[in-house]
TrEMBL record:
InterPro entries hit by this protein: Papain-like_cys_pep_sf, Transglutaminase-like
Name of this chain's protein: Transglutaminase domain-containing protein
Domain of life: Bacteria
UniProt xrefs under Gene3D superfamilies: 3.10.620.30
Pfam families: Transglut_core
Length: 427
């Protein structure tokens, strides 16, 4: 009898465990437990969303609830989440490029209802109706996404304007105001892509290395790799900002290029407009006075703030894009390609001698260009490249405040199409 009671008890417990989140993979159970606790009084809405999600959409609902920011756990309704899932999975069933996506890409770059800190609009039904007509006759994702890019300004009637109500303006608010800046325009474009099952995410930087500001744009996942595109489209991986992005400092988080992620990555998306905690990773003493004042104010506001927008460091990809564009662009008859490296000593064959420094190129005290030299961890065939005039005298100013480096080199270019320039600090 005791054995029978024990067996029945074990069976009841097993059934209870299995029915806690019916139809949901066990990998989400602990995450869901934690999310429901954080949701407090809104937990019933999340439980309703999970219970009412169709069987083939439950993983998506579990994913969203497991990883959504706490601000959303306490406010989003079941109706909001169910509608979002319904239209995301509708796109997955309808469009072949979405049906072919790996689950991980669909869940993180198609399914999410928001990008960064914008208001949580119910944009999916409207955007599906608006943008599905641009892709229904397209056989591949590239044609589909380019057709949306060419038509979105007219479709949503939103133009660039700094008079918008907020930087991270939500899509429906931007359409109401008919204006947005780069963050809002990128949110519009990314949501348009997601509405028809095209994986998309925001990317951007908190500050360019020339300290002329920041920027946000969109990325799309095409044939297994990420490419960037803008609201005012040129084409994939081409835009005015490539030179600025390509001069990002890989050793300074303020200047990194970030791509946003709904699922936590362990790295905050420091390009977010409401991410004053970026000041915590910035050496303020090295910034220009006006920029330093801005980040000192941000740091004051950052007390107790926890990151909830996550990201990936994609800096190197943009550096590589820029360097490829320099290499592939035609040289004028009087130009050469300079391959620059900064070295601590004359041991030029060892990567250990390489130093990552800012290199400013000047001619007659006028700035020509700048960039960041390769690090110890970079391939020995990797160089900082500049297009320069042949048979011309330049000043190369090498600096690294963290290592108290500040040195100027006089360099005269030759007459060949390429020239290696080694800036050796020990000389």
């Amino acid at each position: 009898m005791n054995k029978l009671l024990l067996y029945i008890t074990i069976l009841i417990l097993a059934v209870a465990c299995q029915s806690k989140y019916p139809g949901v993979s066990e990998e989400y159970h602990t995450l869901l437990d934690s999310a429901l606790v954080k949701a407090g009084g809104n937990a019933a809405e999340l439980q309703k969303a999970l219970a009412e999600a169709p069987a083939d959409e439950k993983e998506g609902m579990a994913f969203l609830i497991s990883y959504m920011p706490e601000r959303d756990l306490t406010t989003l309704t079941a109706d909001f989440l169910l509608e979002n899932n319904q239209y995301a999975y509708k796109a997955r069933r309808e469009f072949p490029w979405c049906a072919a996506l790996p689950d991980s890409i669909f869940l993180n770059e198609v399914l999410p209802y928001a990008n960064i800190s914008e208001n949580r609009d119910r944009w999916r039904p409207d955007f599906y109706e608006r943008f599905s007509k641009y892709v229904k006759d397209k056989d591949n994702m590239v044609d589909a996404l380019m057709n949306i890019a060419h038509n979105i300004p007219t479709e949503v009637d939103v133009e660039y304007n700094t008079k918008r109500s907020r930087v991270d303006i939500s899509p429906l608010q931007a359409m109401k105001e008919h204006m947005a800046t780069c963050s809002g325009l990128s949110i519009l474009l990314t949501d348009a892509y997601r509405s028809v099952g095209i994986p998309s995410r925001l990317a951007g930087t908190a500050m360019w290395t020339n300290y002329k500001g920041n920027h946000t744009w969109s990325e799309v996942w095409v044939e297994g790799e990420w490419k960037f595109i803008e609201y005012y489209v040129d084409t994939l991986d081409q835009s005015w900002f490539v030179a600025d992005a390509g001069k990002a400092d890989p050793d300074n988080m303020l200047h990194w290029i970030y791509a946003a992620s709904f699922k936590p990555t362990g790295l905050p998306y420091y390009a977010a407009v409401d991410a004053p905690y970026v000041a915590d990773v910035v050496n303020l003493s090295n910034l220009p006075e006006d920029v330093r004042a801005r980040y000192e104010r941000m740091k004051e506001r950052a007390s107790g703030l926890k990151p909830y927008i996550w990201g990936h460091n994609v800096t190197q990809r943009y550096i590589d894009l820029y360097e490829k564009s320099v290499q592939n662009s035609a040289l004028a008859e009087d130009e050469l390609l300079a391959n620059v490296v900064v070295l601590a000593d004359e041991n030029t064959s060892s990567s250990e001698s390489r130093l990552s420094c800012r290199v400013d190129v000047q001619k007659d005290d006028e700035k020509v260009n700048f960039g960041y030299s390769p690090r110890k961890t970079d391939d020995l065939n990797h160089f900082l490249q500049f297009k320069l005039k042949k048979n011309t005298s330049y000043q190369f100013v090498v600096s690294n405040p963290e290592q108290a480096i500040e040195k100027t080199f006089a360099v005269t270019t030759g007459n060949d199409a390429q020239q290696d320039i080694q800036l050796i600090l020990s000389k």
